[in-house]
Amino acid sequence: MLIDTHAHLNAPQFDEDRQEVIERALQNGIRRIVNVGFNRETIPSSIALAEQYDFIYSTVGWHPTDAIDMKPEDLQWIESLCQHEKVVAIGEIGLDYYWDTSPKEVQDRVFRDQIRLARKVGMPIVIHNRDAHHDVVQTLREERAAEVGGVMHCYSGSWETAKLCLDMNFYISFGGPVTFKNAKQPKEVLEKVPLDRLLFETDAPYLAPHPYRGKRNESSYVRLVAEIAAEIKGISLEELAEITTHNAVTLFGLK
């Protein structure tokens, strides 16, 4: 039994076969999926998906690349949605210095506002971090994110940065890139992350694992990530699945 802790199954890439994709996940032992809403368009459809399937949950948050579009009323909207029984975290939120779509100062404000909201409502946060390792860690520390904890989504940083995140009550999540043949650093970090702080995800439809690299990702492929991780950790897939399922249930409060 595995949990895909980060997917976007409400994305248009699944409009033609969403039901089949979800059924394949179940057939491959994926028992719960955390689907991520990250802006004005995707939050409602993510919640609708969670309402349709009892084993799918939703997060609500504002992605850093869309930070420029966020208005004060959107933060109030997100706060109101945190009361929904299927909403389990605020995210994905963070900083993205790769895509030049929102100024850094706007990203910073939106990120900090949502960390403060998470502390206000007592919910964990899902962190998006692209090329912004130092600033993400510093912001988490300054905003006392350790009070709620969360997950470093599709982690791509160093072990040194991972240790700082672990010290702030965060889980480290790995997706498709850890299966790539040239993924030296992700594999080394995964080897060092304690089992009780480890999570798996797909980020579907993005970042498909080997041997599907470059193709559409889907939740059933989280099993391929877990298989590689089991080899690296030197334990059985069954044991690793049990541990990481417990981790996800604990972090998100899944039923």
TrEMBL record:
Record keywords: Hydrolase, Metal-binding
**GO molecular function per UniProt:** DNA nuclease activity; hydrolase activity, acting on ester bonds; metal ion binding
Tell me one Pfam family matched here.
TatD_DNase
Q: Does the keyword RNA-binding apply?
A: no
Question: Can you tell me which residues bind a divalent metal cation 2?
Answer: H128, H153
Cellular component, GO annotation: cytosol
Return the PANTHER family for the record. D-AMINOACYL-TRNA DEACYLASE (PTHR46124)
Provide the protein name: TatD family deoxyribonuclease
